[in-house]
Design a protein that fits this description.
This protein is mainly beta. It contains 1 helix and 28 strands. It has a domain of 125 residues: 7 Propeller (Methylamine Dehydrogenase, Chain H), CATH 2.130.10.10. The chain is globular and about 45 Å long. The N terminus is likely disordered. Keywords: Signal.
Length: 324
């Protein structure tokens, strides 16, 4: 009996140790970063605690835009050459649904409540709006020529869509699901970001010479300031306090840091080649930058304004998003 009790006791101890190890491992895993790889048709999953790729998930053809649900459970990938959205179960690490999304979806964004997914159709000149519970299309909204990216205002009332060939921003009323204004900007607009208070929007123009960042007064639907930046600016993000902007450049191969109050460049951080879209970790201590021609993601330490890691991913990474 004593031997049986010992064996049973040790089995219980081992089971508890394994359980604690699993819990510890799950707790130590940081928020995951997801990088879409245009030419390998997959998504690289990066553990931000140690900057290692922990999974590679096959998706549709030419994945580009990416959005993550607030509960971290779903990752939405726009596949430009297969005209659909791959829905990834983040815990399972695999695609669990595929939704038709119109012609050539590129940029995607979720409504603040997560109920709707907006997909920009580059070659279709439209925005497809989907119900995230069912994947059904709610509306198809005509914008202008060659729409690229989309951003939703902090209050969720409007969406901005950058139209590359038209050199405009389409303003969508998200309640009426229709365009209510078109704002002229510099040539070939790409990335868009709203200030945290929703008063301003920042838009990069890739083919302006030199590249520029436009500041839009959201209430007035007009550009109030344009500042020169580097060559081929694309992605732009804003800190939660609204004090700093970070702009990635496809040809300068750098991220510019901009004081949002004075609109002056305070730092140029060299990164990999063809730096496009970028994303913060939840604590905003690090910034992850998709560098397409380097087949890598550059990781910037925000405090020191230096690259602290280069993470090899798939072929031609386009965008990166991080669980918040």
């Amino acid at each position: 009996m004593r031997d049986g009790r010992c064996r049973g006791g040790w089995a219980l101890v081992m089971a508890l140790l394994l359980w604690f190890a699993h819990i510890s491992s799950a707790a130590s895993a940081g928020p995951m970063a997801y990088a879409t790889n245009e030419k390998s048709d997959d998504v690289s999953v990066i553990d931000t605690t140690n900057n290692t790729v922990v999974n590679s998930i096959p998706v549709g053809k030419r994945p580009r835009g990416i959005a993550i649900s607030l509960d971290r459970r779903r990752v939405y990938i726009a596949n430009g050459n297969s005209d659909d959205i791959s829905v990834i179960d983040a815990e399972a690490g695999k695609v669990v649904a595929t939704w038709p999304a119109g012609v050539d979806p590129e940029g995607v964004a979720l409504s603040p409540d997560g109920a709707r997914l907006y997909a920009v159709n580059e070659n279709g000149g439209t925005v497809t709006v989907m119900d995230t519970k069912t994947g059904t299309v709610i509306a198809t909204i005509e914008v202008q020529v060659e729409p690229e990216w989309i951003a939703i205002s902090p209050n969720g009332k409007i969406a901005y869509v950058s139209n590359e060939t038209s050199s405009t921003i389409s303003v969508i009323d998200t309640s009426a699901l229709k365009v209510v204004a078109a704002i002229p900007v510099a040539k070939n607009p790409r990335g868009i970001a709203f200030s945290p208070n929703g008063r301003y929007a920042y838009v990069t123009s890739e083919q302006a010479d030199p590249g520029v960042l436009s500041v839009i007064d959201v209430a007035k639907h007009r550009v109030i300031k344009t500042i020169p930046v580097g060559e081929r600016p694309v992605g732009v993000v804003v800190t939660r306090d609204g004090r700093r902007l970070y702009v990635a450049h496809g040809r300068t191969n750098a991220v510019y840091v901009i004081n949002a109050r004075t609109l002056t460049i305070t730092k140029k951080i060299p990164v990999g080649q063809r730096a496009w879209y970028l994303a913060f970790t939840p604590d905003e201590q690090r910034l992850y930058v998709a560098c397409g021609r380097s087949d890598a993601v550059s990781v910037i330490d925000v405090a020191t304004e230096k690259v602290i890691a280069t993470v090899p991913v798939g072929k031609m990474p386009f965008a990166v998003a991080i669980q918040q």
